[in-house]
Amino acid sequence: MSDLYNKVRNRWVNDGARLANPTGSADIANRFVTAGLAVASDFVEFYAVVGGMAEYQTDQDLWSCWDIDQIITKSARYSGDGVPFADWMIHSHIHLVRRETDSRSSVWVDHFSDVPIEKVADSFDDFLDRYLKKDETTLIYFDEPTITDRKKPNKSEMATPRKPSD
Q: Model's pTM, two decimal places?
């Protein structure tokens, strides 16, 4: 899947985001294990290829996919189920992964409200593929006038906010 991961990296570079330096699968896997974070190999491989965004960086649509240092720091403060790895529009909501198998992660969104955490993709690669296609069912909202079937929040998604963990 490194072709998909490189496409994501290239998009971020084209958007002007500063990126973290990838350090290789063994180092990434070791850092997650040392931090006590159970992640699947797809997530490790993505970070080995891409590295994530440097702190306070976003794509043109205000989505920030954190580097491994931010993931470890924010995971230590996150009380939900999963490993947070990104936020949209300065923590309006966060994306997190859950290890489904040794090789596959699912992707979820925490709205920081009384709305339950919502699954947005059965696999990390599907999530990234849909992200590149500007598919708003990823719960990343794109500044793109050609999108005609925007995901509209339902009433429960507009519920009382709860304070983020960090």
A: 0.82
